[in-house]
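JOB MANIFEST
job_type = single_chain_structure
chain_count = 1
residues = 105
[input]
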Amino acid sequence: MSASRNRASRFLTDTRRAGDLDPVVHSLSNFYREEFVRCQRCLEQQREFYSERAIKDMERALMRVMSQLDSLCSTSDANQIVSSLLRQFNTATGLFTWSDPKQVH
């Protein structure tokens, strides 16, 4: 497993106790975290097409966003902020073009 996947895997679970977060915030944060991990996986599959610096910059940005998801999801405009970030990462990684249209909800 690559080092970036190891770093990403620790963000799949909250480091806070579930009781520390509002259940809605916790669910929202987990949902978006899974989406950002999908972006990271897509980026990993495309590694050969980008420079190492571009990959590192994108991984760093993904890690930063994922590490701040709980606080971002606690804001009143969380959906707008986080979905905007997710759209930007989706565009950069080409996730929408890699997705099977039958799997889109």
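[summary]
The two ends are 30 Å apart (CA to CA).
The first helix runs from residue 3 to 9.
exit_status = 0
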